[in-house]
Specification:
This protein has about 290 residues and is of the alpha+beta class. It is built from four helices and ten strands, in the order αββββββαββαββα. Strands 3, 4, 5, 6, 7 and 8 form a six-stranded antiparallel beta sheet that branches. The protein has a two-stranded antiparallel sheet with strand order 1-2.
């Protein structure tokens, strides 16, 4: 290659590198000096429990850089007076999904989702799973008793699962979860159910014995159970489908045949000197 051409190419490379470095410095300085975009959002000033109603002292504001969380509240007036349907922690942004609808108030009613109902069941320490039924857990509802229409059922009382994967809204008068996991005595458990399930649950609690069974919250599968009876436990057929009850016969019962009459016999003793003998004769009524 000609020496003159090499010098020209080398010079051009130096000039291009210098220009690139100059442009990089100018653009970098402008980007660094541009203020970052921030938005003021509403956050919790302290830990706020489920069911509480938000007041001025519960709310604060912070500047958040970048994209806003979905449903973030930017005006404190939009959150005042609304109930909390999920625990909030200090410094956490207030989201629409964590608050009840305006005017719904606080307490248990604010945690009921649209289209659902809170159905209360009176329980004891055993039915309440030794006090470990706390808000947010999932339970199955079992009933036990004698089905109506059966006379002297041979299999004894029966048990059947009527509801599965039901959310617990509250236990007793407390709608808070037990942070230490200790058992506590509860008298009433409120379950989140549909209107149809509420009817079945109300009827079951008044006519049968109700039992709650805890389940894993991550296990949402609905099991197909056939129920069980006391007779199946002793026969080793527990878990098998229950036999259909035998129909109760209707109509008049057949008359029982009268027992045959026993013939009456007359016994006569005959004395002939020192000899004694006996003679048997049928009565005149039997002969007729």
């Amino acid at each position: 290659m000609n020496r003159r051409v090499s010098i020209i190419l080398f010079t051009a490379f130096i000039i291009a590198a210098a220009c690139s470095y100059f442009v990089y410095r100018v653009v970098g300085n402008r980007m660094a000096s541009a203020p970052a975009r921030s938005t003021r959002i509403v956050v919790a000033n302290k830990d706020i429990s489920l069911g509480s109603v938000l007041h001025d002292g519960d709310l604060g504001t912070v500047d958040l850089t970048g994209d806003l969380p979905k449903g973030a509240i930017t005006n404190a007036k939009d959150a005042l007076g609304r109930g909390v349907i999920s625990n909030l922690y200090q410094g956490e942004p207030i989201l629409e999904s964590r608050l009840a609808a305006p005017g719904a108030g606080g307490g248990l009613a604010a945690t009921i989702r649209p289209g659902m109902r809170a159905c209360a069941i009176k329980v004891d320490d055993v039915v309440g799973v030794a006090g470990f039924v706390t808000p947010g857990m999932r339970v199955d509802v079992l009933i036990s008793g004698n089905p109506p229409g059966e006379v002297n059922p041979s299999d004894g009382p029966r048990v059947k699962t009527i509801l599965q994967n039901i959310e617990v809204l509250s236990a007793g008068t407390d709608i808070q979860k037990d942070s230490e996991g200790k058992p506590k005595q509860v008298q009433v458990v409120n379950l989140l159910v549909t209107p149809e399930q509420a009817e079945n649950l109300s009827l079951a609690s008044s006519q049968t014995h109700v039992q709650l069974v805890l389940r894993n919250p991550l296990d949402t599968q609905v099991a197909d159970t056939a129920g069980s009876a006391v007779g199946n436990l002793y026969s080793g057929k527990s878990g098998e489908p229950l036999p259909k009850p035998k129909p109760v016969p209707t109509g008049p019962r057949p008359a029982k045949a009268a027992p045959a009459a026993t013939p009456r016999v007359l016994l006569i003793e005959v004395f002939n000197g020192s000899k004694q003998s006996e003679a048997k004769f049928a009565s005149n009524e039997d002969k007729k």
